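sorry for the late reply, my laptop died twice this morning and i had to redo everyting from scratch. anyway the thing you sent over, i finally got around to it. pasting the sequence first so we're on the same page, its 153 residues, then the predicted structure underneath. double check i copied it right bc i was rushing
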Amino acid sequence: MFRLMGAVALSAFLVAPAWAADVQVRNAWARATAPGQPAAAVFMDLGAERPASVIGGASPASERVELHTMSMQDGVMVMRRVPEIKLGAGKTVQLKPGGLHVMLIGLKAPLQEGQTVPLTLQVRDAAGKVEELQLDVQVRRQAEHAGGMQHRH
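ok and here's the structure:
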């Protein structure tokens, strides 16, 4: 009985949303990569109680972290780096395949399904204060299994 209760409590912690600068992260996941693939995309839902912006990040799994968007231009899917992802008060911004996302550039090893990847997001509030949001992002093959994210202290 106690093991079951402990497992339930632990599972609630593992999927708990992460917070910083009144920003909440839910459903964070990274796409698994093939050997030799130099980059991976990370997706999530971001919400904010007050206006804020994600302005960057870092991960020990890659040389650098960039914020990107994808869009169709003249029938071609184009990916571009963006300086920030703006979050409006009370709104959810979805980082998803084919749209806004976080890129792990210069992967140090392939991302394998089932592992977790540490990711730090830099969040700037409306007053200019920057905070760091620590995440452990689950590696998945596709979005339907998204939702696993662990908040680290």
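The radius of gyration is 16 Å.
thats about all i looked at so far, will dig more tmrw
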